[in-house]
Design a protein that fits this description.
single chain, about 575 residues, nine-stranded antiparallel β-sheet, eight-stranded antiparallel β-sheet, 11 helices, about 25% strand
Length: about 575
């Protein structure tokens, strides 16, 4: 036992030196991993609307001073949330790149920008693309945009939730709800009324503090594609992917049709000719006493189930006159834990083999069954067929009308146009450049070496010195029980520590026997022994490679145990 303690102490010293060396190596490598941040350059790409929030943005974007439409509610809400254009403070991906930022938490925000001229998507591809950066994450709130219908009544000062829009697109999250909205307002060709069509099974939004890119592509052939970070996450047809559906049913149930009173819709009925068997005992109990049971030999019939708590003490402020006699609380009788039971023993119950329960007649097919009744179908008077729902209404402006619990949501690099290629080119100039930098900055903040070691060989001394020494010794002695040579090869720290320990002891003995100060010969001997120890350590480390395969099974066993 004393030898093991000495070896452990030697291992501690060895571990400190080894970890110090690895620390220097990691410090040097991390210092060379500085992230290079590119500088913002305005794009030369042209589009019906392209916004990078450069100088003059405030002439295009106007905050709303309207009040939120709250029909049916007593409270009135105003759009008091402030907006700003600034660089991100969280993982800045491009130096000098500014975006539109939501500044207030738990507030209603509304801001819009008119297009230089209306955008009419009829017969053309429509591409909507923009970046979202959730600098404080997103617990509850929206980060979607709206493309507003081009009307004479479109005034930026009055932009609100009641302002007619053509498309609503982008992330929205609150609690368990997390989706990328795609909603479009569809005009009924018969009535002229508009109805919101919501994408079914919408994809999830990315909730991260790095920038995400959202792209919507609407094709003239009535198909759509949604991309997130440049990757397709949803696509489909306007005809079968929205709720309510674009085109109503051709036929509907006749509201005036009623089920006849004599209609039989019970497919099966109790057999009227069935009789209860004479030996059927409905009164037989479900359980009966097990007469064959015997009391266990270790049953403590005289022991109570609970006893006064021996460790309980009467409170100091207990007044017997006012509170009555103090009675200690009870606890389970510890004697009962080691026995089959305590207290009076009674025979247990068992399932009654004669139990049958209440008799009921078996079911048979109903001879009078007519089937499930359904009202007859009639032509839908509201039916229409829109063969080109992707021919959306002309759009005159873009707006953000949001409520969010988190501030500092940043929007940037907005593209509204007709070219998929130009939108992708803009993404290459902006999003993909900053995304690589942001991810590198995010990774640099993550704690290093936070993974648990998979085996004793992966342990680091400074992570847990006690565990390091324990596991190394345990592994060494486990392997040494079968093959001491392989133990020395695979766990060289232990023999190295032992050798160092003996060299130190030898030097101390020499000093003491020579009368205090060590003579030159003793110093040379100690130095020589130290060099031999270093040489032995190097040779042992070299042998690790050849011995590793032979002890592979043993290490696997130890690794499994260390993870349990």
């Amino acid at each position: 036992m004393k030898l093991n303690s000495a070896i452990a102490a030697a291992l501690l010293a060895t571990g400190v030196y080894a970890d110090d060396a690895s620390k220097v190596d990691s410090t040097e490598s991390s210092s060379t991993a500085a992230v290079e941040v590119p500088t913002f350059t305005p794009t030369t790409i042209k589009a019906p609307f392209l916004e990078q929030f450069t100088d003059g943005w405030d002439k295009r974007w106007k905050p709303s001073h309207a009040k939120k439409d709250t029909k049916g509610q007593e409270e009135e809400w105003a759009y008091v949330g402030e907006w700003s254009v600034e660089e991100p403070y969280q993982y800045k991906g491009i130096e000098g790149d500014k975006g539109l930022v939501v500044k207030n938490p738990a507030a209603h925000h509304a801001i819009s920008a008119k297009f230089p001229k209306k955008i009419d998507p009829k017969g053309k591809t429509l591409v909507v693309q923009y970046e979202v950066k959730l600098q404080k994450g997103l617990e509850c709130g929206g980060a979607y945009l709206k493309l507003l219908r081009d009307t004479k009544a479109l005034h930026q000062d009055e932009f609100s939730n009641a302002t007619p829009y053509v498309i609503m697109f982008g992330p929205d999250k609150c609690g368990a709800t997390n989706k990328v909205h795609f909603i479009f307002n569809h005009k009924n060709p018969k009535t002229g009324e508009y109805e919101e069509k919501h994408l079914s099974a919408a994809p999830q939004a990315t909730i991260a503090k790095t920038t995400e890119l959202y792209t919507l592509i609407v094709q003239p052939n009535n198909t759509f594609t949604i991309k997130r970070g440049g990757d397709i996450v949803r696509d489909g047809s306007f005809f079968d992917q929205f709720t309510p559906s674009v085109n109503p049913e051709k036929e509907i149930d006749d509201p005036d049709d009623k089920k006849p009173e004599d209609w039989v819709d019970e497919a099966r009925i109790p057999d009227p000719d069935a009789k209860k068997p004479e030996d059927w005992d409905e009164d037989a109990p479900f359980e009966i006493v097990d007469e064959e049971a015997t009391k266990p030999e270790d049953w403590l019939e005289d022991e109570p189930l609970t006893v006064p708590d021996p460790e309980a003490q009467k409170p100091e402020d207990w007044d017997d006159e006012e509170d009555g006699d103090w009675v200690p609380p009870t606890v389970p009788n510890p004697k009962c834990a080691d026995a089959s039971g305590c207290g009076p023993w009674t025979k247990p119950m068992k399932k009654n083999p004669d139990y049958k329960g209440k008799w009921t007649a078996p079911y048979i097919d109903n001879p009078a069954y007519k089937g499930v009744w359904a009202p007859r179908k009639i032509a839908n008077p509201a039916y229409f067929e829109d063969k080109n729902p992707a021919n959306l209404e002309p759009m005159g402006a873009i707006g953000f009308e949001l409520w969010t619990m988190q501030s500092d949501i940043l929007f940037d690099n907005i593209y509204i146009g007709h070219s998929v290629e130009e939108a992708e080119k803009l993404a290459q100039e902006t999003f993909f450049k900053k995304s690589a930098v942001e991810k590198a900055l995010e990774d640099a903040e993550k704690p290093k070496n936070d993974d648990k070691p998979k085996s004793p060989s992966d342990l680091k001394f400074l992570d847990d010195p006690v565990l390091y020494v324990k596991e190394k010794l345990d592994l060494f002695f486990t392997i040494a029980a079968n093959d001491p040579i392989q133990a020395m090869k695979f766990v060289p720290e232990v023999p190295t520590a032992v050798l160092g320990l003996f060299v130190t002891l030898a030097a101390l003995v020499g000093i003491l026997t020579m009368g205090g100060a060590a003579p030159e010969a003793a110093k040379k001997a100690a130095a020589g022994a130290k060099d031999k120890a270093k040489d032995a350590k190097d040779k042992t480390a070299e042998a690790v490679a050849t011995g590793a395969e032979n002890v592979k099974a043993e290490v696997s066993k130890r690794a499994t145990r260390s993870q349990q």
